[in-house]
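Practice problem: predict the structure.
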Amino acid sequence: MPSREFEIKNDDSLEVEPIASTISLIVGNALLVLVIAVMVAVICNTHPDYTHRFDCGPDRDGVDKATCERRGCIWSWPIKSGPPACFFPPNGYITYNMTDISPYPWGYRVQLRKRTEMPDFFDGGLETLWIDVELQTKYRLHIKIYDPENKRFEVPISLPRRPLIAAEDPLYNVSVTEEPFSFQVIRTDTNTVVFDTSVGVMIFEDQFLQLSTKLPSHNIYGFGEHAHDDFRRDLNWKRWGSFARDEKTEGTANLYGTHPFYLCLENDSNAHGVFLNNANGQDVSFQPNPALTYRHIGGVFDFYMFFGPTPEDVISQYTEAIGRPYFPPYWALGFHLSKYGYNSLDKVKEVVARMRMYNIAHDVQYGDIDYMDRKRDFTIDDQRYGKVAFKDFVKKIKEEGTKYIVVLDPAIAANETTGTYRPYDDGVEKNVFIHDENGEIIYGKVWPVYPGLRIDDSKPWDFQIKTYRGYVAFPDFQRKQTKEWWIREVVDFHDKIDFDAIWIDMTEPANFLDGSVNGCSKNKYDYPPYHPHIWGETMADQTLCMSAIQNLDEFNTTVHYNMHNLYGWSQTMATLRAARAATGKRSLVINRSTYPGSGKYSGHWLGDNFSIWLHMRRSIIGILDFNLFGIPFVGADICGLFLDVTEPLCRRWSQLGNFYTFSRNHNGLIYRDQDPAAFGREYAEEMKKLLAIRYTLLPYLYTLQYKATAYGHTVTRPLMFEFTSDSETWGIDRQFLWGPGFMIIPVLEEGAGSVNAYIPKARWYDWYTGREIDRENTGRWINIPASDYHIPLYIRGGQILPTQQPANSTKFSRQHPFGLIVALSDSQSAVGTLFWDDGTSVDTIENGEYYKIEYVVCQGSNLTANISNSYGTLLDNLRLDTVKFHGLITSPSVVQLNSVALNDSQWTFNDVTKTLNITDLQHPMSEQFLLSWH
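Answer:
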């Protein structure tokens, strides 16, 4: 097929001129060059290298030789494990021909038609496809492959709209090959091919979509949610399913969220990201070419690509598209304490009292489902908690500086045998619940139990479900009336308990039955022709029937098959609105099931882990993953949910968890207490000191959260983000950074008294002593001593960290004096920022209701504080009291604040550590200053 070239004029007319052998689209001043290569389809008679075999038999139970060859594929057992026995013929499996390409102001459209002679894979390929290529911004490309003749399910999240005019000078080109059809996306400045579909086969059937791409490097990060052992994904024939599931964080299970996004670090240290906006059941396969293959059971191919060029740029560009992360209230950065199984208010009081006895920081206390009457939402167990006593207790601890968070589940008790239950009755009246395919409310079983029963937890789980659990109905949070109903229930419940935020669990949605109390019918949604690589024998395993009917939006319905992975996302939006309506504050939602865009409304915890060393280590990877996914307020259950934790493990996990952005100790029913005061006086005193470090750094952490919301920055970062050109950092996931300036090196091995760590090339200062790491030990691995109660922490040269005197709650620490830690670089310079608002109001960033102070040291002569934004009396009565400089070359003879010399008693210099300590400044935080030394 010959190539053609088009030119788009700036006027309203479109002039088409056939020219030469390339396609160039000129949109205004934007030039997109599409190289059209004429290729001959040749079926190779030899088998490709094992690493280049693309699986033609991904079926759940595999395929036999006959099925393989019926699909037009090659059957040959590999010599080693990993590569598939049934694979597509290289360069010879052509499913679609390109029939046309047309320029548009925003980019261009490619039209494809299915080759009639090609065999069907599962249920028959769609005859016509369109590919829209939108040059949205200089760094963002949108490619959508869809059926123009039949409306298919598309994810209802908010994403950037098609631009009127294509971007100028984009960082990418798109190359289209006509025969066999494929496309490539190429970085313009380096000619690196970042996305290349020529290596595999594109299949587009009603319930089976497949697309493969060659990758430019082995440095792939992202995809989720799964528990895996390395932040950099293992491409050695690994396959991961994504379908929201209530599951323990073990094995290779698909877990609670679905995040089809990856970041690739190219071999020259440029980075790009790819987001496939498809929420249907799916899996992704890696192979060591390197390459990956997407498989989905519905929807369309809706790609957004981001071109950095730094990893931090990529995440900022990604969150610009899906929504910037939620800004948590200040108190949410404090320490959280929870347990499933307090089982009485007296037990909660006991735990709180021992935290107070040791004066351990305790900003948030939780109520898990045992506070409820028979585990029903919006109720209180009057016998074990007492409605009045419970309300008084929450009021008391809030006065003492501890917030209270309640858990709510989506499953609403439905078949009460005595009296009425308003949440269900009103829900039925307002038509808020998901229905089955026959239009009746679909019922499952989760936590709520029948009245009047004595629960025997020793009985088998299936017996307990059958005997004790009542029916539940599931709200459809895409309906307007459901959101209004949910808000009313939350607001009314707040009148009973003055909670500050909401934790929503089981939002997959979880169901202790498969599908419903009546099972599921035989239909194409519950039994699709392709079953993704997910846990469970059926699609409805531990959730609802896929044929259940939900709202897509206010006007259209669809099946749960399409909406399943979006359920937690939809409940999160409604819950944040409800929490704010109830509290009148910014509030907070912690959610388990997430999708891209969930980070706009909630934080996340990593789910049901175990009290084992492996799960502690894996938590770092999960936290780094969710910073990629745009949910930086994230943590794991410190010390583990299941099993009785050992004291050494809980100690080390507490050291690590002290630097989760969402720092919560939570454990499960029947297991030993593991709160910071549960292991005796010595342990409690050490936990108090440990938490004091976190609370000292909260102004720095809060500023990082502000930058995440305002600019899309990550909060917890892999070393690779800051030292991208150092290839040694590309696979490091046992240590991490807060922002650019603070490195955390936890001990992750049982019985270890030291830790092997990589120290990137920079100046680094020990948090505890201020002593600089010997320069000869940077850019290499070193062994760092770490006694039982010690976690190595380092401040990076060139950074200024705002601090505040700690207390046992942010209610009190926010009233304490501030400090600065100035870590000087080789050039004797440093920069830092403090963001400060009231910590609880809604939209303070958007409304400009904050102070923002920029700190700068240039060439080691002075420190300036410039206020770039001020608001009201936020900083009245607050003082800057201490400034600590690390890395000065020589001892100063005089130190001045705004040209006035400080008393000798106000500063000291340590000749060994080269640290200058300034105290008792008492400078108003609301005023700029110049601090100099000579």
